[in-house]
Amino acid sequence: MSEPIPRGAAAPAAGRRRRWRQGWWSGAARRASPNFGPRPAGVAVELVVLHSISLPPGVYGGDAVQRLFTNRLDWTAHPSFEAIRGLQVSAHFLLRRDGRALQFVSTDQRAWHAGASQWRGRDNCNDFSIGIELEGLEGQTFEPAQYGALNELLQALSRRYPLQAVAGHEHVAPGRKHDPGPGFDWQALAALPGFPQGIALPA
Ligand SMILES: [Zn+2]
Predict the structure, then answer these.
(1) Rounded to the nearest whole angstrom, what is the distance from the C-alpha of residue 52 to the centroid of ligand 1?
(2) How far is the CA of 89 from the centre of ligand 1 (A)?
(3) What's the rounded Cα separation, in Å, for the pair 168 and 93?
């Protein structure tokens, strides 16, 4: 269903050294969101929850998603925004169609992305997960630059946290959520050079 990922799309640019500072990644532009809270004491970050989002749905390149995550979205700017009026949500990261990364919440903090959810018998995935949004639409495909950026980000996260798995929102909230959907190619992600070993993906 997805287009093949060109070779080399995943290779991090040579010479760039990415760093973490208090849960903020130097590979992403910071857009601090007030929508976060503390993680429960003693809980390790073991999961990445992958999402897709675009506002209006299917329209790419605008700033509505970052406005939503920072509580600055004008609910009257598009008829589709009425359905989400007042929503206060966030994710740790958004990967744009061209692979650029934005970060809204420190990964040391708990972002508000998964909602009612369960993974390996544990509820409240926000407590122990990182939320990554891909700019896109569930059911449609994603850009090679997004796979490359995601691969680099997962490598950076796996150096900082004891990550065990990446799952889609659709996998931790089945029936309620459907993103990123069948257009996301999990096997292509796993096949990218440098993809962290030992991280489980949906079957
Ligand atoms: Zn989602």
Answers:
(1) 6
(2) 11
(3) 14
Active site positions, annotated = 133
CA–centroid distance, 102 to ligand 1, in Å, is 16
pLDDT given for residue 12 in this prediction: 52
Write the DSSP symbol of residue 50: E
Q: Residue 73 pairs with which residues in a beta bridge?
A: none
What span, in angstroms and rounded, lies between the C-alpha atoms of 97 and 193?
20
User: What SS3 state is found at 202?
Assistant: coil
Report domain extents, the chain: 20-190
pLDDT of residue 181: 97
Among 3.20.20.70, 3.30.1330.60, 3.40.80.10, 1.10.645.10, what is the CATH number of 20-190? 3.40.80.10
Q: What is the mean pLDDT of each run of 10 residues along the chain (203 residues)?
A: 50 67 98 98 97 97 97 97 96 98 98 98 98 96 98 97 98 98 97 96 90
Output the pTM of the full model: 0.92
